[in-house]
Amino acid sequence: MNKRGKKTPCEGCRERKKKCTGELPCERCQKLGTKCHYLQPVAVPSADHIRDVNYYQLQLEVDALRDVLTNMEHHLCAIRQRARIKDNNNKSTNDTKDDVNWRLTINNGSISIHTDIKTYAGLLQSIQTIAAEHFSLTTQTILNDHIEFIQRQKLPSKLRTGAFLAVLKCIEMNKQGQLATITYASRSHNYPLQNIILQLMRIYFSCQFLRRVVFHQHTFFKMFIKSTDKLSPVVYALCATVLSERCRHIIKLFASQERIILGERFYDKARELIEAKFDEISLETMMTFTFLATYKANLLYPQEAKMYLEMAMRIRQILAETTYKDPSLCDKGEYITFKRQGVALQYVITVLQYINNKRGMPVEIKSGRNIGNRKQDNMEKYEYSVEYDATVLPDEPPAIARSIAERHCLNLIGKVMSPYYRRVRHGVDDNIPVSLIMKTEEGLKQLYFQKVDPDYRLPMSVFNEDLDDLEFKRRLDNCSQCSIHSVCLAVLFYQSHIGLYEPYLPSLQGSRSQTDSLLDYAPTEHSSSQVNYNILKLHAHQVCFKSARIVVRLLEYLCNVLDTCNVNLGILMCAWEIHRRNACLDMNDDELTKNGVYTYLSAEEINISRAYMFRCVQILKRGYMFNQTERSSWEFFKKSEQQMMEALCISPQPTAEYWEPARPF
């Protein structure tokens, strides 16, 4: 018999008010031969859980009301602006029409609209006047079932286009200087590589490994570091990869030219050792080729990276069908290492897809431009063959468990947004189904607010638009959920909102921007169209503007407070692009008024975006570590900063040359 710790009467004794021994079964029920059972205690539902469940629906309603109010304000501002212009240009306007006074009052949860319109006929006449002179009321909202498609606009991509072309220029320069680098590396620094392997491993497991957990740490040491005299080619390939990563700790330890030399020496050593096992189907050969592919991808050698990637994927497919087909028949650590290698492979696939203009913002390249005779990309066949495994083994510390959980959430957001990006960014048809926009946004919010663990989700009170920078930082400092992982998830969540709505941003007509001249790039000209007062465009502007501000603030917090090693350049440029567009650096006040920019942008928003552009530059300087092969990319951003300063009549600040050797500490 199981003795219960507390003498709580069973249900039979309690109903008959008999003394109960508190056992299971109790003596009375045992004598009577009746079933003895106890009520199971039920925990009181957590108030935080109830609030999180209800908060999502409430937040959607609040956002909808806020959007309606914001759109009304924009319409009224547009009406007043155009009315002032019309009065200034034409003094003979009919003065018999009186302005209608509107006042919106919110009190005790109710909304009241007060106006001086007295009759229904007066209301109809006012609506007809507004519709005829200011904007068309036949324009439907995004929630109207009658709208099935919305036409995508030209994406704001001048900054990202220049950055992409700079990467292509880096690849061309690498091809020209590759042989010289290898020759110089082969005759320099002959001290043993084993002397610095320990340093590299210590740096790797304290920083880069937590960014991408690509194997089980204990299994890695057990299989590949049995003794310092005879190391596996996996170790040398990993050391080469560590030296090529954009990591602040590596930059402090080794100068730029020294990283190139040591990286090539580790790369050559790994190739030398793997030649004897070239056709061996094993986890060791697969991991060696994976790290060699990562090394070449980091240094922007796409052809070599693709070659090693294909070799690793071929071995991975064979291992999946043989050695690791049944997890119960193999070592648990080896199986987890095999599955986690998909993270490293996915990183290489992402880099190659970006280089081949198949990922991120598509760039229209002039037909006469030489981009290195790049071959047709076939990375699609690998993209969906790599699945992420979020299993955490018992011997792994909490830091690794948190990194794995963060990566799992990031992949879930990517799965929600990927179909939308393929359809909107890379699709041929300009007509986008409104249902696709709504479905994607709903899935994104449900994922973040309902499926993501509360420990990795920042509270919505942090993102109040009325907060200044000090209050924003104070709330993050006092937030128990605030960590590198939760901030990174929030950054991707709000960047996804920018990617969701930026194809529908209203066109701001203006002169040719100065940034178009970067790298001699000439964008495709589009015929100007009349500004359409579309509520979806206003909504897209508000979402992108708000999200871009939040992304910049969070990236600043990552760099300045959490001291992250390296920010995501793609996410930074996405927010930077929105602020660059809203800053209207190529238009003066007269052009802003003439082109109807104030219909969508207020003077305050323009000034805010200009200030945030400077903050983006500071994030880039502090948070993004250019490696030794990205000189053209660095020069592009330096030129962008100079042109921004010139447009605002500000003296540019001196910037250190990134390729200057860093002093070891």
Task: Supply database-style keywords.
mainly alpha; two-stranded antiparallel ribbon; 57% helix; flat
User: Percent helix among the residues?
Assistant: 55-70%
Q: What is the N-to-C order of secondary-structure elements (H for helix, E for strand)?
A: EHEHHEEHEHHHHHHHHHHHEHHHHHHHH
Estimate nothing, just give the exact number of structural domains: 3
Report the count of strand segments: 6
Task: Give the terminus-to-terminus CA distance.
Answer: 68 Å
Gyration radius, in Å: 31 Å
- Strand line-up in the sheet with most strands: 1-2
Pick out the low-confidence regions.
83-98, 131-146, 179-188, 367-376, 511-533, 658-665
Morphology: flat
Secondary-structure-derived class? mainly alpha
Count of runs of 4 or more consecutive helical residues = 23
The main β sheet shows up as: 2 strands, antiparallel
- Tell me the β content: under 5%
Mean pLDDT: 79
Keywords: Metal-binding, Nucleus, Transcription, Transcription regulation
Organism: Rhizopus microsporus var. microsporus
Pfam family, one: Zn_clus
InterPro entries: TF_fung (IPR050815), Zn2-C6_fun-type_DNA-bd_sf (IPR036864), Zn2Cys6_DnaBD (IPR001138)
